[in-house]
Design goal:
Mean pLDDT: 97
Strand content: 15-25%
Helix content: 40-55%
Radius of gyration: 20 Å
Distance between the termini: 44 Å
Bound molecules: pyridoxal-5'-phosphate
Number of strands: 10
Number of helices: 14
Shape: globular
Length: 329
């Protein structure tokens, strides 16, 4: 990947003259079955530009209560688009058409304008869980009945593609805007691509310029993303196998609770209700004592992610580390 980046043909990205960026956006538009696409520095910018394109101030978008823009985008939906979030209750990141319909309620002068329905694929904090095509279709039907747009935060869409064996375009066809991230499991250093209709992507370009997301010789980073599409998609299956092995190993340790049904891709969420220092103390001890890096999405949950730098023997080492912490000799 580094070599491909070093050798990339480049040009002025913001003038549309970078051949490597152009190749990347065409490739992603085709992968997702969309008319057009734009290269952005991050997935966060894809989400926030999409909100700005779809919503006017005071409009409401509907998403899972654990969705990325509600927790990790520094309040940007309110700060940039001025959109309101309606957080829906969800099971493993997936809400139902009934939940959505109930939240929308009846049209009224008092209510905020329902504008956008948001799907996170895979659902990160719920554990890398997948929306099925049928689940997407059923919420999109409600969205369309209410003349709402559909947006997919597809940071890990390709994990769902590999896990479920469905082409990306089969998921994407229910959406107006969809993006994929290159800096997650695909293993590139920077970048995400947002796709949609010509018209929406033209509007997204205005926001890209406005937010300072337009670049110059961005082919250097786009080459990493193209390389990832060629080499790092199929292998996501190895990450999923490693996550499963990790989850099954951890589930056998007394004091560790895991819902194995939620382990569908490359994320494992474990609860350690009895650990005295809470999840934050636990991940500190894991890192300090064993060099195993995990995160703590809440006071009781520890989150592990498998990726292309994690081997099967790393997984064994992580299981051993958790065992040592939970069962002191
Ligand atoms: C990582 C992530 C993002 C943000 O992507 P960046 O490229 O890190 O800005 C958005 N949504 C989800 C679900 C993510 O996991």
């Amino acid at each position: 990947m580094r070599q491909a980046m070093a050798e990339a043909k480049v040009g002025d990205e913001q003038k549309g003259e970078d051949p490597t960026v152009n190749a990347l956006v065409e490739r992603v538009a085709e992968l997702l079955g969309m008319e057009a696409a734009v290269f952005l520095p991050s997935g966060t910018m894809c989400n926030e530009i999409s909100l700005a394109v779809h919503c006017r101030q005071g409009d409401v978008f509907y998403c899972d209560s654990l969705a990325h823009p509600l927790r990790f985008e520094a309040g940007a939906p309110a700060a940039i688009a001025g959109a309101m979030a309606c957080a829906l209750p969800a099971k493993m990141g997936v809400y139902t058409p009934e939940d959505l319909e109930a939240a929308i309620g009846l049209p009224s002068r008092y209510a905020p304008t329902p504008r956008l329905v948001w799907v996170e694929q895979t659902a990160n904090i719920p554990g890398g869980t997948c929306w099925s095509i049928e689940q997407i279709r059923s919420v999109s039907k409600v969205a369309r009945q209410h003349s709402m747009a559909m947006h997919m935060d597809g940071a890990r869409l390709l994990n769902a593609v590999v896990a479920m064996g469905c082409p990306a375009a089969c998921f994407a066809r229910y959406f107006d805007t969809v993006w994929i991230d290159f800096s997650k499991g695909l293993g590139a250093p920077v970048g995400a691509v947002l796709a949609g209709s010509e018209e929406l992507i033209d509007q997204a370009w205005r926001w890209k310029q406005r937010l300072g997301g337009s670049m110059r010789q961005a082919g250097v980073i786009a080459a990493g993303a193209l390389w990832a599409l060629d080499h790092n998609v199929e292998r996501l299956g190895e990450d999923h196998e490693n996550a499963r092995k990790l989850a099954e190993g951890l589930a056998e340790i007394p004091g560790v609770e895991i819902d194995l049904g939620s382990v569908q891709t490359n994320i494992v969420i474990a609860s350690l209700p009895g650990w005295p220092g809470g999840a934050h103390g636990f991940i500190g001890a894991l890192l300090e004592g064993y060099g195993v890096r995990a995160s703590a999405p809440s006071a009781s949950q520890v989150r592990f992610v498998t990726h292309l730098d994690i081997s099967g023997s790393d997984v064994d080492a992580a299981i051993d580390a958790v065992r040592h912490l939970c069962i002191p000799a």
